[in-house]
Amino acid sequence: MVVYQFHYHYMMSKYLPDQCRLLFTDTDSLTYEVQTDDIYEDMKPVAEEMFDCSDYPSTHPLYSETNKKRVRCWKDENSSYSPICEFVGLCPKLYSISSAKSNKVKAKGIQNHTRSTSYVMKRF
Prior knowledge:
Elements: H1 2-14, E1 20-26, E2 29-34, H2 39-43, H3 47-50, E3 51-52, E4 74-75, E5 84-91, E6 94-99, E7 103-107, H4 112-118
């Protein structure tokens, strides 16, 4: 119910359908493509009530330990890097996410060595 409320009552009411697209879901997470000038500025008015911003660098404008590990608060899983700039999803549990500072490849059932050498963003 919390995931549903966040998606429909926050994301879909804040952004127009052509500005916000749900890329994929996992058990307790949602990943979006959001077209906006500054996602962090958009988050600022509700950050204290909806988001756990404790993993951001201490110099980040949204950094706060107020909701650290608080249940029902959303967390930016890419918080220590930078906003996601590229996403390729082929099927459940097989995707690649890139930001300016990192590249994450998820390939369930494939050994780490194979994943790190064979599954890179340009091959997706």
